Amino acid sequence: MKDNGLRGAVFSVPMFFKQDKSVDFEALKNYLIVCLKSEGVEAIFSMAYNTRYRQLTDEELFEVNKLCCQLANKYDKKAIIGHAYTITNSELNDYCNAIKKYNPYAISLLYPERYYGIDSALIDFFAIPKKSGIPVLIHEQKLVSGFNGSLIDWPKELLTAVFQDSNVIAVKEDSKNDQITADVMNMSRKFNFDVIVAGGGKKRVRKLIKEIDLKCWLNGSLMLFPEISKQVCDAYLNQNEVFTNMYEEKIETPYFDEVISKLGWHVGHKVALHSLEYCELEERDPMPVCPLNELEFYKKIILKINKSVKAI
């Protein structure tokens, strides 16, 4: 089922809006083309949070994922697409049947309900795309307890039950727990799926490459600079410490310490993409945006980081 798998940084798909709050499909298309033209970008990933699924209608979401598939196929790359944030099993089946003709590499499934310790509900949900012949990427983030609302890690028995399905082509490992990440990586070798690690930045990526032979991660700072993705990914995978230290010192650390830690990922990332002229600053309510009186301050930081990128 799986061909050559995934390697390096997977680029999550942002969401752009115009000043009238409509989806800016033209800006999104232009940004994705820049990414897909880069030799180092193998896959784009439309997902629940970065792609603002909660702010989109079902029709807009379908059009966004259709666009991702069409562009990825045009440039001989991979498109991982998602589904509406809240969805029933029957609706997911209908969605898969409708989107499959655009040839997604996989559909990312995020369990839309709380967890009551009844594994069959999750197993049944994740098995639905198999009927349409679409491979599945499991978005394995912490579950919300149906008993007290707390965030809990997937029990190991549940991980095994879901991941052993032959239709699972990849897992977005989003536990932020190194031991669970290592366990999932071991399962990936047994059941033949890719692992895309999310969280912790490039320092964690570098650590996991050494410790568990990580091959793939969700992009962060590199989303701003897709043109250098091959250099950066090769440097991390080949453990080129001179390059990776330079990247973290001049690009990764300033971005996360001076922008993301102050604004949060989603607000800060939109500021960065806006500063680099990829998009408007706009969001749909109730998603917040950076206060206009602070925008110039953060823009100067981004443009300074951009100078470091140009020097590579």
Question: What can you tell me about this protein's structure?
Answer:
The chain is of the alpha/beta class. The protein has a single domain (8-238), classed as Aldolase class I (TIM Barrel, Alpha-Beta Barrel), CATH 3.20.20. It is 47% helix and 13% strand. The chain has eleven helices and ten strands. Strands 9-8-5-4-3-2-1-10 form an eight-stranded parallel β-sheet. Helix 9 (241-263) crosses helix 10 (265-275) and helix 9 (241-263) packs antiparallel against helix 11. It is globular. The relative contact order is 0.13. The mean pLDDT is 96.
**Distance between the ends:** 38 Å
Low-confidence region ranges = none
List the domain count as a whole number. 1
Biggest beta sheet attributes: 8 strands, parallel
Say how many strands there are. Answer: 10
CATH homologous superfamily heading: Aldolase class I
Q: How many distinct helices? A: 11
Q: Which structural class do you get from the secondary structure elements?
A: alpha/beta
**Top-tier CATH class:** Alpha Beta
Helix content: 40-55%
From the 3D coordinates, which CATH architecture would you assign?
Alpha-Beta Barrel
Order of helices and strands: EHEHEHEHEEEHEHEHEHHHH
Query: What best-fitting shape do the alpha-carbon axes yield?
Result: globular
Spatial strand order of the main sheet: 9-8-5-4-3-2-1-10
Strand content: 5-15%
Rg measurement, Å? 19 Å
Rounded average pLDDT: 96
CATH topology: TIM Barrel
Oligomer: single chain
Write the layout of secondary structure elements.
Layout (H helix, E strand, L loop, with lengths): L7 E5 L12 H13 L5 E3 L12 H17 L3 E4 L7 H11 L6 E4 L9 H9 L8 E6 L1 E2 L6 E2 L3 H8 L4 E7 L3 H14 L2 E4 L3 H12 L3 E3 L10 H9 L3 H23 L1 H11 L16 H19 L2
Parallel strand pairs: 1-2, 1-10, 2-3, 3-4, 4-5, 5-8, 8-9
Antiparallel strand pairs: 6-7
Helix pairs in contact: 1-2, 9-10, 9-11
